[in-house]
Each structure stands twice: as structure tokens, then as C-alpha cells.
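Folding Task

Wanted — backbone structure
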Amino acid sequence: MKPKMEEGEDSTLSIRVRDQHGGEVVFKVKRTTKMKRVLQAFCERKGWNPQEVRFAFDGQRVNDDM
């Protein structure tokens, strides 16, 4: 996941989420959006249970409240 910053007060992030098989989903969210929403949407698209999935960025776990 690599956030792309855009200028402006209502800036959005483009977050690319990849699974272990190389599948990729891109989300455009506001800066204030909690990762919990993004991770739940990713699991919903993949048909996975969010309680059984772990997310990491640069080797560190991504928490819901980030």
C-alpha cells in the first residue's frame, strides 16, 4: 500500500491493497478515513472474513484505528 498525496484541502489518497497472490484493489479515500473502512471494503470484495486477515505496510501491522 503506497498512499499518493494530492494537493488541496479536500485531498484524497489512492491506496493500493495487494493480497499474497498479487491481486490488487485501489481505493480513493479522504485523509480522515480510518483504515478499518478500507480493510473491510477490501475483504468484502475478496469474500474474506476481516477477522481472519492481517494487513501490513513495510513489514508493520496496519491497525483499524490508523
User: Anything to note?
Assistant: The longest helix spans residues 35-46.
